[in-house]
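Section 5: illustrative case.
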């Protein structure tokens, strides 16, 4: 996307609605320009009529007008800035909301392929650069170009020859700024990449701080952190150095210009072509023009930074979801909850690396079906395809003879609950974590869900019971307690289809027994698909599928598979020996 296209897009989607506010800021910018020009112009009559001609009748009027000009200048600048600050914050909010909405609806594959730290960098740093483009760039363009135009008028009014000489500085400054702006765009892109890497790293550190301590990797991580922070420091240094390069360039140009103007002015005054009062008024106008010229000269740098941020943010906002609905998608109607996989093939990355190879499954409704196999066989992938976290590459998945690809995503997922070994909880109260499945649930329904999942046993012992905050991902709870909350949440949803992915792994015998009872309640009369490495937990399943290397290598009940599947038999015998 070209720079012009990005600017058009930002205007159309984010600034157009605030045009009235922007025009109001323009109005105050005009007053600012007029006031600044008046300050420079008033030096002419002040020197000529007060100091040279000593007209006492103007001794109050001219100083009074100077006060009015300065007050008007300060007040108009304040109002113009406040208006644009408010506009920029609204734009920031709009962009962040659009980006968040895109991410929250994004395909699982997109989120999985990029670290969350980089998304956070996009949502904060990159959006800040875009809002600077809106607030700083637009305001400076208005006020500085208008102020410069007003001061140039004063300069031409005082002496057109000197004014023409002074104008030479503007294209020279612009040329320097254009070069710096291109350099700034490249360095900014590098900085945001480094910032995203650092954010990702910090999230990993906070998440895995116990692992770091137990393996005594503090010094190793200090070294890694120092390297990443140093890399970010270097890119930040380059940005700041590029930015301040404008100062010596502008100072040098201004110094040369003032020296040259003083030289020319001295000759003009000696030849009676210029009065001293005109010269001081002209010089004041030129000195006041220094700030807007410098600001306009560095404006390109701000624009390039904003465009750089937009190039990273807009593709996220524009991301087209692969998990989409057909135009004629219908509501999924659950009768028995029978699920079938018909010649399903799937790969996460490329056709060559198939995870599932022509999978055919018949999962009976209102019964429990287990998937057994070694890690990496494709069991969890099968579960992930049912609620359409991913789309199949080939084949179809049907629920009660309805293709899930003909149904609305909302109606599909509303009928499915997922409980996995990677329990996900929010840094919120126990009540809100359980009711996340049904925000309209009554307190009694929440209590009943906790009771049936055996979570009430530990909840009642907590100081604030259901209003207890559990910390990030339930850090203040044990693994078994978190799992029981997860089951309580699934119970509250009352879905006819239950997906259990290693829901009883890594638990002690007593806790596992409680969770098994909770799962029995959760899955009673429901279509249930369960993955478990420990065969003891699925021996009584109505049907067991043996999955190996993305293929179905056996099916039947436990006793049948012991006779018909060597893979299952070996799997079972190894577990007997371990126990």
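Designed sequence:
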């Amino acid at each position: 996307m070209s720079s012009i296209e990005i600017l058009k897009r930002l205007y159309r989607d984010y600034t157009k609605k605030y045009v009235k506010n922007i025009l109001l800021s323009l109005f105050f910018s005009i007053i600012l320009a007029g006031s600044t020009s008046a300050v420079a112009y008033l030096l002419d009559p002040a020197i000529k009529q007060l100091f040279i001609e000593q007209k006492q009748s103007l001794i109050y009027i001219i100083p009074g007008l100077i006060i009015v000009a300065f007050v008007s200048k300060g007040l108009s600048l304040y109002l113009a800035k406040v208006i644009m600050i408010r506009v920029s914050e609204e734009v920031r909010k709009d962009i962040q909301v659009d980006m968040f909405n895109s991410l929250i609806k994004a395909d699982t594959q997109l989120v999985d392929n990029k670290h969350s730290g980089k998304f956070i960098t996009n949502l904060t740093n990159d959006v800040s650069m875009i809002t600077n483009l809106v607030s700083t760039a637009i305001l400076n363009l208005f006020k500085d170009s208008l102020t410069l135009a007003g001061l140039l008028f004063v300069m031409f009014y005082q002496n057109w020859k000197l004014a023409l000489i002074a104008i030479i500085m503007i294209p020279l400054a612009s040329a320097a700024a254009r070069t710096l702006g291109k350099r700034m765009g490249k360095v900014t892109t590098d900085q945001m990449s480094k910032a995203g890497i650092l954010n990702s790293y910090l999230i990993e550190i906070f998440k895995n701080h116990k692992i770091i301590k137990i393996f005594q990797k503090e010094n190793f991580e200090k070294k890694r952190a120092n390297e990443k922070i140093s890399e970010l420091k270097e890119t930040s240094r380059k940005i700041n150095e590029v930015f301040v390069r404008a100062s010596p360039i502008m100072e040098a140009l201004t110094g040369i210009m003032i020296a040259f103007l003083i030289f020319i002015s001295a000759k003009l005054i000696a030849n009676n072509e210029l009065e001293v009062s005109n010269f001081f008024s002209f010089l004041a106008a030129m000195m006041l023009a220094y700030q807007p010229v410098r600001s306009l000269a560095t404006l390109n740098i701000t624009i390039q930074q904003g465009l750089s941020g937009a190039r990273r943010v807009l593709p996220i906002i524009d991301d087209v979801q692969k998990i989409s609905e057909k135009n004629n998608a219908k509501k999924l109607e659950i009768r028995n909850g029978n699920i079938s996989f018909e010649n399903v093939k799937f790969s996460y990355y490329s056709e060559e690396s198939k995870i599932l190879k022509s999978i055919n499954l018949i999962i009976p409704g209102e019964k429990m079906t287990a998937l057994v196999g070694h890690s990496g066989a494709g069991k969890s992938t099968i579960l992930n395809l049912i609620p359409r976290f991913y789309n199949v590459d080939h084949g179809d998945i049907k629920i009660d003879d309805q293709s899930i690809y003909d149904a609305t995503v909302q109606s599909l997922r509303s009928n499915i609950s997922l409980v996995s070994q990677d329990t996900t909880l929010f840094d919120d109260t126990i009540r809100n974590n359980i009711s996340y499945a049904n925000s309209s649930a009554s307190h009694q329904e929440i209590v009943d869900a906790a009771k049936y999942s055996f979570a009430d046993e530990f909840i009642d012992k907590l100081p604030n019971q259901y209003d207890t905050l559990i910390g990030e991902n339930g850090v203040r709870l044990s693994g078994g307690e978190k799992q029981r909350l997860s089951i309580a949440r699934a119970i509250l949803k009352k879905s006819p289809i239950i997906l259990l992915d290693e829901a009883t792994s890594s638990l002690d015998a007593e806790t596992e027994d409680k969770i098994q009872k909770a799962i029995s309640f959760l899955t009673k009369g429901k279509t249930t698909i369960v993955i478990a490495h420990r065969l003891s937990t699925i021996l009584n399943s109505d049907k067991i599928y043996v999955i190996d290397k993305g293929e179905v290598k056996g099916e039947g009940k436990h006793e049948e598979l012991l006779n018909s599947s060597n893979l299952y038999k070996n799997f079972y015998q190894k577990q007997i020996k371990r126990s």
